[in-house]
Specification:
2 domains, elongated, 8 helices, 4-stranded antiparallel β-sheet, 6-stranded mixed β-sheet, 17 strands, Alpha-Beta Plaits, Aminopeptidase, alpha+beta, single chain
């Protein structure tokens, strides 16, 4: 049974999204306490069993459930955003939420407050339809996603606050479907040297020059090996993202550090990627004790089944709404779904908005995408956990 009043649905989604955009939640500092109070109040008023969970000050997460038992269908969207960047590039106030013709503009409109608005509406619609006849539906709104952090979705999983059989993670996919994501490995290489006066550099050991040799070796050996790894449209990659070394130009630097980002195919693991990086640094031939390799963060990728009940329900709901089948798309980035990569559950990443809109000035989402997402989400829920009033 589709939502009966299309104009009211449109107005509700736009109003909610504008309210969400107007609550600052940028990283840094990544404070999601205010936006989670908003979500908690709305969900509690609806009758959901709602809790705010936090391990680190300022990083708040909401867990709201209705129904009980198995299966557990969990929806997830992150509320934190990146910074707006240079304000002069924005045509509207990035933290006001502005509507122009068929689009809502504002920081997080696409990534990922659009998905949050759809899921809040879905929570209301589920209550209007009497809740699930069997099983539970859980809504989770989280922080700490933009920094690949462990105090958002990962915290909820590790603490056992959510144990999904089926997981739907909101992300800007233009309502298409993602069932595979690369893993993320980030590591740090530190080169050590010996300080000396720049006037007599021969008496020191330059850590930046040591790092330069290590980087050259990585580009020659490791990068070329990674370039040959691909599956379908996904590519294993390596990026040297930062380099920090030295204190002033007139001192031979005693320390230099670089940070590496690796995107891993589902067949690669964080453990293997760390070992591979360490071996590649060792192969550069620098003396033992003059370098270290550290793990910053890492999660394996996942390849969920495309023939699962979850994917089937969303595919059917998408086709019903649009008249054509959905596409399976390859993501550039990574979502919090990766924290469940090894749990053997059904996973789907989907939501309104184009991925290219996120993290950019004048970020926006089309109202049509929001409305379509609402229809698709409620249609999928009806197919997975029939509601009391259908």
């Amino acid at each position: 049974m589709p939502p009966s009043n299309e104009p009211a649905l449109r107005d509700s989604l736009v109003h909610t999204l504008c309210e969400l955009i107007a609550i600052p939640s940028a990283t840094p500092p990544g404070d999601t306490s205010a936006i989670m109070r908003y979500a908690q109040q709305r969900l509690t008023t609806l009758g959901y069993d709602t809790h705010v969970e936090s391990r680190r000050a300022g990083v708040h997460n909401v867990v709201a459930r209705i129904g009980r038992g198995s299966p557990s269908l969990v929806f997830n969207a992150h509320a934190d955003t990146v910074e707006p960047g240079e304000r002069a590039l924005w045509r509207t106030d990035p933290v006001a939420g502005s509507v122009t013709k068929d689009r809502v503009y504002g920081l997080g409109a696409c990534n990922c407050k659009g998905s949050m608005a759809v899921q809040l509406w879905l929570a209301e619609e589920i209550v209007r339809r009497g809740g699930p006849k069997a099983g539970e539906i859980v809504f989770t709104f989280v922080g700490d996603e933009e920094t690949f952090g462990s105090d958002g979705t990962k915290y909820l999983r590790d603490k056992g606050l959510i144990k999904p059989d089926m997981l739907v993670v909101g992300a800007p996919t233009a309502n298409q479907l993602i069932t595979e994501e690369r893993g993320v490995f980030q590591g740090r290489i530190v080169a050590h040297g010996r300080p000396a006066h720049a006037g007599e550099p021969q008496h020191g050991d330059n850590a930046i020059l040591r790092m330069a040799r290590i980087i050259e070796s990585l580009g020659r050996d490791l990068a070329s090996s990674i370039a040959d790894r691909a599956k379908g449209g996904m590519q294993s990659t390596m990026n040297i993202g930062t380099i920090i070394g030295g204190t002033t130009a007139n001192v031979v630097p005693s320390r230099c550090a670089v940070e590496i980002d690796r995107r891993l195919l589902a067949s690669e693991t964080v453990k293997d990627a760390f070992t591979e990086l360490r071996n590649a640094v060792a192969a550069a031939g620098e003396p033992a004790g003059t370098w270290d390799v550290e793990l910053i963060t890492g999660t394996n990728g996942f390849a969920a089944r495309r023939d699962s009940r979850l994917v089937g329900a969303f595919s059917e709901a998408y086709s019903t709404r649009t008249g054509s089948p959905p596409r399976f798309v390859i993501p550039i980035g990574a979502s919090d779904a990766r924290f469940f990569a090894d749990d053997g559950i059904e996973i789907l990443v989907t939501g309104p908005g184009e991925g290219s809109e996120g993290h950019a000035a004048n970020e926006s989402v089309t109202i049509r995408d929001l409305v379509d997402a609402a229809h698709i989400h409620v249609g999928a829920v009806e197919r997975l956990l029939p509601l009391a009033k259908t």
